[in-house]
Design goal:
- The chain is an alpha+beta fold.
- It has 2 domains: 4-143, Fructose-1,6-Bisphosphatase, Chain A, domain 1 (2-Layer Sandwich); 152-265, D-Maltodextrin-Binding Protein, domain 2 (3-Layer(aba) Sandwich), CATH 3.40.190.
- It has 7 helices and 14 strands.
- A 7-stranded mixed sheet has the order 3-4-5-6-7-8-9, with helices on both faces.
- Strand 8 (137-139) and strand 9 form a beta hairpin.
- The radius of gyration is 17 Å and the shape is globular.
- It starts with a helix and ends with a helix.
């Protein structure tokens, strides 16, 4: 695997690329119209901005790592390598299309099934979250850590609502009902990458969602782990990257929080 020094150099280059395409996203949003959006699937939107940003990211990443592969949302690249970039060019497209200010660029690097580098750039707040394996987590150059709140009664929970896979809907609503009664609130921000980064820096205390793709969680999941958080699936296993479900929280809260998620959704 790449050395820590090599990864530190690489994460700086990736962060610069994420900020660059983030500037393009900001500029395009100023004159963007809902009529420019396309329907990719049931309740699933895409725009020319997603596609152009992904193209720019792929072309920017290729020279950084020889022989690298890609797993990207809009399918502009599909080759596989020893190291694979996992990219969501615009996480929170629905927010972007409707002019709601929370959407992010997410770039993770996978090696042997594990994420070893992650960058999430939240466009509207100009916030760049990043981490490398065993290197800690950072926001705009400053170290971040998950919160220390240790009970549901003290906590703020983030989640995402299902938009087309409703197989777990009744159980999901049961989880929401329980969290509504036991926590200080639930937030549906609209970008899983941002949710995870907000957990990593202590703005929320836990996050769960199902029917996610690897590009939604790759970078953010690593950032949470490097910020001291726990990231697992709905069975308290490690299949959160490709398993389409994620349960994450600070260590003090994880057992109580995951107990609800695993009982109702696992």
């Amino acid at each position: 695997m790449k050395s820590k020094e090599e990864l530190n150099t690489l994460v700086a280059e990736v962060a610069a690329l994420a900020k660059s395409v983030g500037g393009y996203i900001r500029g395009e949003r100023e004159n963007f119209s809902y009529t420019q959006a396309e329907i990719k699937g049931l309740n699933d939107l895409v725009s020319y901005v997603d596609k152009e940003v992904e193209h720019r990211i792929v072309e920017g990443l290729r020279p950084l790592l020889e022989g690298c592969g890609f797993l990207v949302e809009e399918n502009t690249a599909s080759e596989k390598g020893e190291y694979n970039w996992i990219v969501d060019p615009l996480d929170g497209t629905t927010n972007f299309v409707h002019g709601i200010p929370c959407y992010a660029v997410s770039i993770g690097l996978e090696h042997e099934g594990k994420i070893i580098l992650g960058v999430v750039y939240e466009v509207n707040r100009d916030e760049c979250f990043y981490a490398i394996a065993s290197g800690g987590a950072f926001l705009n150059g400053k170290p971040i850590h998950v919160s220390e709140r240790n009970s549901l009664s003290q906590s703020l929970i983030a989640t995402g609502f299902p938009i087309y896979n409703f197989t777990q809907l009744d159980n999901y609503l049961s989880a929401l009902k329980e969290f509504m009664q036991k926590t200080q609130g639930i937030r549906r921000i609209g970008s899983a990458a941002s949710d995870l980064c907000y957990l990593a820096c202590g703005r929320v205390d836990a996050f769960f969602e199902y029917n996610l793709n690897p590009w939604d969680v790759a970078a953010g999941g690593l950032i949470v782990q490097e910020a001291g958080g726990i990231v697992q699936d709905f069975k308290n296993g490690n299949n959160w990257l490709f398993g389409k479900q994620i349960c994450a929280a600070n260590p003090s809260l994880y057992e109580e929080f995951s107990g609800v998620v695993c009982r109702l959704l696992g």
